[in-house]
Amino acid sequence: MLTGSELLAKVKELGDVSKSDLVRSCGYVSTKKDGTERLNFTAFYEALLEAKGMSIGGGGNGKRPGRQLSYIATVQGNGNLLVGMAYTAQLGLKPGDEFEIKLGKKQIKLIPQGAAEEE
User: What tens-digit pLDDT sequence spans the chain (119 residues)?
Assistant: First the structure.
């Protein structure tokens, strides 16, 4: 995959070709499990923006930023209250971890089994 000045030069050299041909010619192609070709348009355009000196966030670590945690949960239609994986991962919880449920006035406390309740 071309990057930086090489990418800019190739785009200029190819001129008025289709977007698919442009992405393919710059090397932003992968192969799916079934053997067919997949054009990586997002990676191509991100590299193109970076080559032009623009940043679209993400800190440049190669990872896409995820959603920010809102720390708000909504009761689902079936009455369940779901705590998502991002929250449990942040707390280091594993499948099978058990909690005592304490109900207060308009609040729910989850206390890890065997741990003292923190106030």
Answer: 899 889 999 999 998 899 999 999 999 999 888 989 999 999 999 889 888 887 666 555 555 566 677 778 888 889 998 888 888 888 888 888 898 899 988 888 888 887 765 54
SS (H, E, C) 41-54: HHHHHHHHHHHCCC
Per the DSSP assignment, residues forming a β-bridge with 104 are: 107
Residue 103 tokens, joined: 């109900």
What are 73's two structure tokens? 């949960």
Residue 8's contacts (CB-CB under 8 Å, 6 or more residues apart) are 48, 51, 52
Cβ distance 67 to 80 under 8 Å? no
Q: Estimate to the nearest angstrom the gap between the alpha carbon of 82 and the chain centroid.
A: 20
DSSP line for 93-105: --TT--EEEEEET
Contacts of 75 (CB under 8 A, 6+ apart): 81
Phi-psi region of 96 (alpha: psi -120 to 50; beta: other; left: phi over 0): left
